[in-house]
Amino acid sequence: MLTLIERSTRYARLADLPNGYDSTEVLAALVEVFETISSHLRLSLTLDQGSEWAQWDTLAVTYGLDVWFCDPHSPWQRGAIECFNGDVRFWFPKSTRLDNVGVERVETAQEVLNNQRRRILDWRTPTELFNQATILRL
What percentage of the chain exceeds 70 in pLDDT? Predict the structure, then answer.
């Protein structure tokens, strides 16, 4: 499973990778998700050092992104994603294949997680802020 989090609103998207984590599969999943996000919210991307990100330059050129890489063995540099992945584990224990779970359950988990109020967002939800950010730019 691939998790993407929009930094300012903390809105998250979950994408299944049924054919594995090779860079081609990850690129295809990222493009699919990026096409659903307003361009003003697609400014940068922070990645870890995994080989699944080998085609990062294609994303950078296609979407005009600034791409940042976390230092190896530095989970504190990607705190939001580490925290969110912990919440996702409630729904899908590690190594759960999403193709065995069903799209409806993945969408339900994503919806529930994005509609939880968060202290860091002044007790608003990621969905609320994401929708507000999207509407303001229409």
Answer: 96
